[in-house]
Design brief:
169 residues, Adenine-n6-DNA-methyltransferase TaqI, Chain A, domain 2, 6-stranded mixed β-sheet
Amino acid sequence: MKKITLNKICAIRNGYAFKSSEFVENGLPIVRIGEIKNGKVDLSKPKYILPNDKFESYIIRRDDILIAMSGATIGKIGKYNLDIPAYQNQRVGCFLPDKSKLYNDYLYQYLSFISAKIIQNAYGGAQPNISSKELGKTLIPIPSLENQKRIAKVLSNCENLIKKKKRKY
């Protein structure tokens, strides 16, 4: 199966450094690195910022795949699962796949599978980091879109069964 570097079929967008002085009680939530947990985004205690056109290129929408790019949560992958848009904070990466070549759920499953390798490739001492440029060098196997959909569905079903079993015990 053909493998190519991720940057050939997927852009990786960096987030924006929002100032805490701009936080408000209500507005759009900001996804920060610590909110990427267990394969999803946990916005139980979000910070908010007023909508602003200058932040338009940092909007996160349902099913966007995010990664923590520094600190203790580095390499954590999460899918944004809310219907309301949010803003992408600094050190949060957002994968923007070319949908004609890369199925979003396949990408999510693959990144989840290799997250330990991503962590190993991080650099820095007390505060490990990974850059979007380094993430873009990641090799990814690319079957046909039809096969990507089948693979993602099987893995997602397995993931759901595991979660059900864990809840049972």
